[in-house]
Amino acid sequence: MAKIPVEMLLLHEDSPVDEQARTRLAEALPDASVGEADETGAFQIEVEADDLDQALIKVWDAIAASGTDDHIVFLEHPELPEHWRTRARPAGR
Question: Which residues pair with 46 in a beta bridge?
């Protein structure tokens, strides 16, 4: 395993709520290093993982667990399998 960097972005410029979300995300990743956001809202998380895919999944899971998906996104679009698929199904299916 190695420390793998994952670039993240706060969605709302200079928002205290986004900063609280970054703190909650850091709490959901106790073994990771979560950097401070810069003036654009970009920050880096370093997680122990075997490869980038595993690191992205760890961060993805932590975003879900911390409920911060309305405030934090991956800076670059991740290559997570079927991340774009909606969980909802049309009525009757």
Answer: 5, 33
Question: How many helices, marked H, and strands, marked E, lie in the chain?
Answer: 2, 4
SS (H, E, C) 11-31: CCCCCHHHHHHHHHHHHHCCC
Contact 31, 19 (CB under 8 A): no
pLDDT tens for the chain, residues 1 to 93: 899 999 999 998 788 999 999 999 999 999 999 999 999 899 999 999 999 989 999 999 999 999 999 999 998 765 555 554 544 445 555
CA torsion through residues 78, 2, 18, 62, sign: positive
- Cα of 35 vs its chain's centroid, Å: 12
Number of Cβ within a 10 Å radius of residue 47: 22
